[in-house]
Amino acid sequence: MQIPATLLPAFAESFGGRPRLFRAPGRVNLIGEHTDYTGGLVMPAAIHFSTWVAAGRREDRTIRAVSEGFPGALEFSLDLTPKRQGNWTDYVAGVAATLEAAGHRLRGANLFIHGEVPVGSGLSSSAAIEVATALALLKNSDLFMEPMQLALLCQRAENEFVGMRCGIMDQFTSCYGRAGHALLLDCRSLEFRLLALPPKVHLVICNTMVRHELAASEYNARRAECEEGVRKLGEILPGIRALRDVTLAQLQEHRSRLNDQVFRRCRYIITENDRVCQAGAALQTGAVDELYHLMADSHRSLRDDYEVSCRELDIMVEIGSRQRGIYGARMTGGGFGGCTINLVEAAESAEFQRRVSAEYQRATGLRPDIYVCEASQGAEAIEPAAEDFKGGAQ
Ligand code: GLA
Question: Could you tell which of 35, 119, 123, 170 is best to mutate to test the pocket of ligand 1, judged by most ligand atoms within 8 Å of the CB?
């Protein structure tokens, strides 16, 4: 991984001295959307955009953090509980406070943050900053934590401090991502399998460049509707703990117990878990062609039953789906804007990018960002070389 050229000089200018470096990647989800917080199945991959944290030790118990891309700064004492600010500093303060609350006594740190993951685009810049910060604060304090505990702790920070009731997918992927692979993760047992992605397929991420305001509140509302579904179905199916314990036939049979909206939310989740299983089998047997209809059905169900898509995402998926070399297209991430994921024949991906960009622009007047991504390695400490400190890193 290439250390961002500005990172070490910027740290030196803000704080002085030589920091340690950490990075954690964003992720893209191939299939299995909104299933993580219902204890279901997901199939994400870490991508080559990371959040970098340069960390220097302090002698007191103060945390100071600045970000290259965003205004404002964070400064608080680990002996007091930090307050939510409603901006990027919440991820840093939240992780520090959650680590302390879990009994890890931290040392003070100066943190300089450099983000490459596009913010607000459903590629999980929040998990990336959380995981990179947690790694930095632990190492800075000579502490260690297993990646599984680290992922769970970062999720808790986001749930409790930031107030977003996200599942485990993003933090887990940021910790466990593997180059060239997707993860097939069971979000209930947290068992996972690595699935090799065919080298002939590129992960092409198309950013709609819109982010509708509803995203956070609707996210929590969907989660509550799924919980209502489990509660109501549990009255008649006492053994169930989550929607994955319910079959589609059972859902249909007990439809009258649910209002129509909750019924459709449950139908989406139950069918999506099934699609993830099928997609996993397809990748394992090399039957990549089967992903096309699985991803198309996933998108349709997200749009019609789960209602987390939007006009721009639908247009982008429609355009991507009819290009040469496409193996599958759908929205990815929480929805209400952000990105689509397109699996594209490697030889066609440059042309795909040109055509989708032109067509999306014609249809919406918006110029999309399109990233051809590699499935990448999860979070790690990076040892800078001596010349990196001279500002010569490229
Ligand atoms: C966000 C959340 C994840 C997951 C996705 C939707 O990225 O952080 O936990 O629920 O949305 O699949």
Answer: 170
